[in-house]
Each structure stands twice: as structure tokens, then as C-alpha cells.
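[Meeting: bench + compute handoff]

Bench side (C.D.) handed over the final construct sequence. Compute side (W.E.) agreed to return the predicted structure before the next meeting so the bench team could plan truncations. Sequence as handed over:
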Amino acid sequence: MTTIEVDDLKKWLLSRNFKPDFFFGETTSAPDYLDKSHPRYSAKLAATVQVWLAMEDGNLLDGKATKTAIADWLKSHYKEFGLVYEGKINGTGIEECTKVANWNEKGGATKTSER
């Protein structure tokens, strides 16, 4: 008779990108890169994609350079994505995510919207 721990079985199933509802509940529409239990989860990848999506909110960009707005958002959400090093904010991680998410290579502040 062979036994296996449920957590070990779940890890094995995830490593093969298989998520049966019996073990994982109903599947969500969230992509795998946001699933912290996924074997290839990357905090920096998740943070980078989420900050890029967050920049759809024009208020975050008003009067700020794109790079600054991205970095500010990441600094306010760093714990959510585990961008922590030795218990403090991971400045290098924030910088790396900012570089990847920044679509405005020319730099400069965006124009403030008229309200």
C-alpha cells in the first residue's frame, strides 16, 4: 500500500500544469503567472505585468514620467508581490520591473489631464 501527502501530489500535478477541480477547486480565470503556488511563479514577472496593467489608470501618470509612475506603484505594492529582500523593499527588483514595464523609452513627464 502506497500513500502520498496531498500537498506533494498537488505540487506534482502543478508541475505538469494539471489542475483538477477535486484538488484545486474551481479553476479561476487568473493566469498561471499570478498563481503563487505555481512551480514557475515569479514575483517580478507578476509585479511587472500588474503594474503595466495598472497604468491604464491615467491618474497614475498625470504629471509624472512613466518610469516614475511605474516605480511609485511598485513601491506601494511591493509586499503584495513579495518584492522583499532581507525584510525590506527590494529596490533592485523594483528597478528591474520598472525597466521592463516602461514602454516610454523617450522619457519625460506625461501631460496633466484637464479636469
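W.E. noted at the follow-up: Residues 1-31 form one domain. C.D. will use this when planning the next construct.
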